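tool_log.txt
---
The assistant was asked to compare two proteins side by side. It first ran the structure predictor on the initial sequence, then on the second. Raw inputs and outputs are pasted verbatim so the downstream comparison step can read them without reformatting.
(1)
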Amino acid sequence: MNNPAENPQKNNLKEDAKEAVTNFLQSKKDGWEKLSSGERIYATNIGVLILMGVADVVTTHVFLSMGYQESNPIARFGIEKIGELATLALGLSRLAVPIALFEFVRKQNHIKEGNLSLRLCNSAYAAVVFTNAITPFVLPK
């Protein structure tokens, strides 16, 4: 029964799925290769910014669930007034502002300046995530 020759419809479905994934990945690779080096750096920096934002929210949630308190007074106020989930959602949505600004800068053909700004923003976010990550080792509950 597990023989693909016995069920040609299942085999075709697997092949179609494999082809669709291959085509999707190839289209992304082709698109990436068409970008200039500055645009590639920009796209990478935006990806890092998003990852840092997600890491900030995840580490915050993990340590709040472990009994630690939020050290950011604005976020702490938000957690007290609207709840943790809503505050974490707002934390992710705040990524829209820098991404919109960096996109505006990119469209003005200031890729180099945008990339420098993104690196600075990513460095600041990395510091926040690092601070979150060391919290249980330096602060009592």
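(2)
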Amino acid sequence: MVDTNLTKQPKDHKEPAPKPAETTTPEKSASESELALMDLEDQTRNALREVYDPELGLNVVELGLVRKLDWSPGKVEITMILTTPFCPYGPALIDQVREKVQEVTSRTAQVSMGLEMWDPSMMEDQAAANWGLYY
């Protein structure tokens, strides 16, 4: 009989045990992705502080115009409102918000208008205090 085994191993040779596959528990990966998403949301909101309402001289975050950010893979949906329903700068603000979010997140951004009416109580506390409003 012919031995077809081309590599002879000594009889006492043992193959190394295979390394266990690296596994990540769903809890760990979920919490890591949640932290990354929270960090991205903070970066996004900070970047939106560069988008100003030209009539009021305050940014859209201080004014409370950005109501919600919804995240999905490759996309961000922003819900925002305007200070008045027929704000003459509305289209420009919406466009600036969309562009800024795309720039920061490298994701497609879509802005939709919320249905709630803006009122000064939606402003950040310090911005409202600077206007002389106290709630």
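---
observation on (2): The longest strand covers residues 66-72. The mean pLDDT is 82.
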